[in-house]
Design goal:
The structure is a homodimer. Chain A is α+β, with helices and mostly antiparallel strands. Chain A is 29% helix and 24% strand. In chain A, a hairpin with a 5-residue loop joins strand 13 and strand 14.
């Protein structure tokens, strides 16, 4: 974390990131005061010490990190800044935490246009505000042209966990229901189609969104066993991980899994399976069967859960494996892919 | 943070990082289980949830982040992994926190030799162990060749702050003494000379070290006002930042600042000022005059403070500026450099 004090700014005169913006010297200070603090200011960040000093929480804490290297950095439905806030807020939410604080580490390539950086930081600020979190510590490094690709962002996140929340794959029981909060594959297919220059009648957009509001709503139900957000590797990978860590079998009804028409069409065209495509604003919840319907109803009352659906069951058969009951009525076991279909999706 | 469960490993068969290692699929899992967890395992990390769940602290918290893009990634006195632990442990220590938990976000370039990654992770583990911290959450991304430079690491860090610790530039008073824990410029000059292929009679080595032990020792003295580690921008930039944030003037005796003979020689040869060269295992402390001698004595009893020295005074003259009393007896005001002398020093 770079402590900075001076408030002069020459940013208007310099249109691109230079190596000196990462030097710790005057240009670094101007970048941080003239841009980052303008958007991200809050009492913790503004102290500009080596680390942010935060109040005692009186609760268990959650801590997570993710680096974002998505390409392109601006896409339908979001940008790398929005994604860097949502992804980390969502990781905290999946363990049942109330996200509170983020850190932001920027690695910038020399030559990045400053207006692009400003759009990204403004988008982070807007998303952080929507999610109710503060960026309390930051760091900026600059590397020469060709040593990075425009901008990489790391966000680490901290939150607190209420005493009565206890989510774990170990809580999953045979008979539990598997629920998703909405359609699968939107983020990954939006990115891929934009990269490939493909256009469809139904324009695709990333589902990138902070899930903490939806999560706090459904955590009012004590029957939530465990949650996961199906990002890299998609629904299939997340389900396989959950089956393995709960040591139980899952059976998924292929026909029940919501997939938007445009995503389905693009996947068919490109030979991809939407169940392996990344999402950035959806969650999987495993819920006791007695509460599954009421959890679904709660989800559907939230703007990010309108298309929430029950997609399958936890079973004792084929433990640690996920069976997909296809439209043809046969059950096939889903495998983890060796590689994902798309690099740099988040 | 990538949750992973399976324990198969093909790492021995694959000698270089591939894009698929960042996919979230099987190769990602194998990398994490076969390498990262082998070195960094602890009960928080091993749960492999979306976020680490940590106990209540019952204290104020410190949170910080830094990305490390140093080039070369292996250098005399350390490597990017050791640096990524020390830098973040030190940022926490500077606000008086006991560092507890780190997160680690890796951005890997396709083609990075796996033995290099293993050396770096092993070095992180060893340094974390020495500093008494755990890496509790991690993330790995892979980008194509030419889209990064071998490896970038982000570490965020969390620690707790004891009730009786209250460090702030606002505590600084005229008459206070300015102390450094040892020689200046070692890290930056070791990196530069290695990059340029320069060799000297006295081989240069980075001072990269975790300062939390030294800090806890000196915090037994209530007269510590504020601390800072002079990294990017060196001693001069850190002092200017402290003078500005305390709204007081500093006067530094040039002859008192310890600079190793080899660093001095290399700086002369290359036309650099050692006061602007980065350190990674040194701190500046501002101390009440009545306690300055006993703080120095405490520092000198610690292996990382053997060369601790009093270098100057806090004064009322020239507020917010740092005067350097040179060997010739004249005082010149130190400026913040517009750019640092060396890019990618940390």
């Amino acid at each position: 974390m770079l402590p900075i004090i001076s408030l002069g700014t020459n940013l208007v005169k310099i249109e691109q990131i230079q190596l000196a913006h990462g030097s710790g010297g005057r240009l670094s200070h101007e970048l941080i005061n003239g841009l980052f603090r303008r958007y991200l200011s809050n009492p913790y960040l503004d102290e500009l010490w080596d680390a942010a000093v935060l109040p005692e929480q009186g609760a268990r804490l959650a801590l997570t990190t993710d680096s974002y290297v998505i390409q392109p950095i601006f896409f339908a439905g979001g940008d790398i800044g929005k994604l860097a806030v949502c992804g980390t807020v969502n990781d905290l939410s999946m363990v049942g935490a109330h996200p509170l604080y983020l850190t932001a580490g920027y690695i910038l390539e020399e030559g990045l246009p400053l207006p692009d950086l400003e759009k990204i930081v403004a988008s982070m600020a807007e998303t952080a505000n929507r999610a109710g979190v503060n960026v309390v510590a930051g760091d900026t490094k600059v590397v020469g042209r060709g040593n990075a690709d425009k901008i990489f962002i790391n966000t680490a996140g901290m939150g607190w966990i209420s005493k009565d929340v206890n989510l774990s794959p170990r809580n999953v029981r045979p008979g539990d229901k598997i629920v998703v909060s909405g359609s699968m594959g939107d983020h990954g297919m939006a990115i891929l189609c934009q990269r490939e220059g493909l256009e469809f009648d139904t324009p695709l957009a990333s589902d990138c969104a902070p899930l903490n509001g939806l999560v706090q709503a459904i955590l009012t139900h004590p029957g939530i066993r465990v949650m996961r957000d199906p990002t890299r590797g998609g629904l299939a990978t997340a389900l396989i991980e959950l089956a393995q860590s709960s040591s139980l079998g899952f059976e998924i009804q292929e026909a029940s899994v919501p997939v938007h028409e445009g995503v389905r069409g693009a996947c068919e065209l490109l030979g991809l399976d939407p169940f392996y495509v990344a999402n950035e604003g959806k969650l999987i919840a495993i819920v006791s069967s007695s509460e599954a319907e009421s959890v679904l109803a709660t989800m559907r009352r939230h703007p990010l859960g309108l298309e929430a659906t029950m997609i399958g069951d936890v079973i004792e058969a084929h433990p640690r494996k996920v069976g997909l009951k296809t439209l043809l009525g046969v059950t096939r076991i889903m495998d983890m892919l060796s590689a994902e279909q798309l690099p740099r999706i988040c």
